[in-house]
Amino acid sequence: MEKVRLTRDEKTVLRYISGGQVKCPCGYAEDKFYNAVVTLCLRYQFLWVEFSPDETLDNVRLSQIGKSYLAQNPHLRNPIDRTAVIAAAAFVVGVAGLFLACIN
Question: What pTM value is reported for the model?
Fold first, then answer.
């Protein structure tokens, strides 16, 4: 499974849900914010969610995709864009070479 770039809030919610927390934790200011982040996590199909008729969360669990993602990426680190790192390193080496060429 490829790594997905998650926001800090999505990572926090995935950690809560993987720990067994279903309802909104006390640290969040509003239930609506928690519900919105859970809904955003649904786009990656990491969660299995049941909504009540009044649009609140009844049941939230990790799906098989979410469990396998957490098994492969337990620290939930975002992937690094290696091409940008290589380009930045090449730029620094180029500038250093130009600087050394101008000195001599």
Answer: 0.65
Are residues 40 and 10 in contact, defined by beta-carbon separation less than 8 angstroms?
yes
pLDDT in tens, 50-77: 877 876 677 888 899 988 988 888 888 8
**How many other C-beta atoms lie within 10 A of the C-beta of residue 17?**
21
What is the token pair recorded at 102?
Answer: 């101008």
DSSP assignment of 26-91 equals: TTSS-HHHHHHHHHHHGGGT-EEEEE-TTS-EEEEEE-HHHHHHHHH-TT-PPPP-HHHHHHHHHH
Quote the tokens at residue 32: 């609506």
The whole-angstrom separation of Cα 87 and Cα 11 is: 29
Who's near 12: CB < 8 A, 6+ residues apart? Answer: 37
Q: What is the DSSP letter of 20?
A: T
Whole-angstrom Cα distance, residue 84 to residue 70?
26
Tokens 């990790």 map to which residue?
62
